[in-house]
Amino acid sequence: MTHKNNVREILRSGILSNKTAYEIKNPMDISDHGVQRLREQEDPIYGRKLHEYAPTYINIKNPMLYVRRNIQNDLCLIEISLSALLDHNFIFTDGNAAARNTHFYNETNDLEKLPWDVLNASYWNDFPDGKRKRCSEVLIYPRIERKHITKLHCCSSSAYKYLSQLGVPVEISENLFFGRCFSDATLKDSSFDDDIPF
C-alpha cells in the first residue's frame, strides 16, 4: 500500500525498507509517525529492526487501509508474487509486526499458525484481537525487486490513468478498498481512530 506518487520510483528501485527509503528517497508518506516509532524494535528471528525490511500485508483490506480510506482515491495497492520469498530472508507474522502479542515465523511449516479465519473473513471485528490479526505481514529483507511486482490496484479512474502509464498491469479494484472513492480526499483529513499500531 502506497501513495500513487511513489509508484514510479518503486518500479525503478523496488520496494525498499522504510530505513532505506527515507535515507535515499523522498517518498510521499501515508504512515502515522508516532506509530512508526514502534517499528524500531528488533525482530526475534534475525535481530534486525522492523524498519530494515520491506513490509507487505497478507490481506490488504485491513485496519491500516481503513483509516486511510479518505485518501484511497490516491492510493495504490501493489500486488507481489510469492517468488519474492525466494531471493532473500523473510519473516511472516500472525498480526501487526509492531504489536506486543504478535508472533514471528520464517518456516513455511508455520503458515498454519497464521489466523486464516480472520485473514479470510469479510471483516475483522467479529474476532477477538481481530484488528491486530488482520494486519498480519510478510517482511522481506532488504527489499523486494521490481521483477516481483505483478500488478497495481487502484479504486479511481484518475489513479488508473496515472498508473497505466508506468508499464505494469493496472486494475481498478474497488472491492479491495472501503466504500466509494473520493477525489477530494487529502492527507490532512486522516483520522487514526484505531488502537492497533501501524
TrEMBL record:
Which keywords has UniProt assigned to this entry? DNA-binding, Glycosyltransferase, Nucleotidyltransferase, Toxin-antitoxin system, Transferase
DarT domain segment(s): 1-182
Reply yes or no: does the keyword Transferase apply. yes
Q: A Pfam family in this protein?
A: DarT
InterPro entries to which the protein is assigned, alphabetical? DarT (IPR029494)
Question: Would the keyword Nucleotidyltransferase be found if you checked this record's keyword annotation?
Answer: yes
Can you tell me which family this protein belongs to? Belongs to the DarT ADP-ribosyltransferase family.
Protein known as: DUF4433 domain-containing protein
Organism for this UniProt entry: Thiothrix lacustris
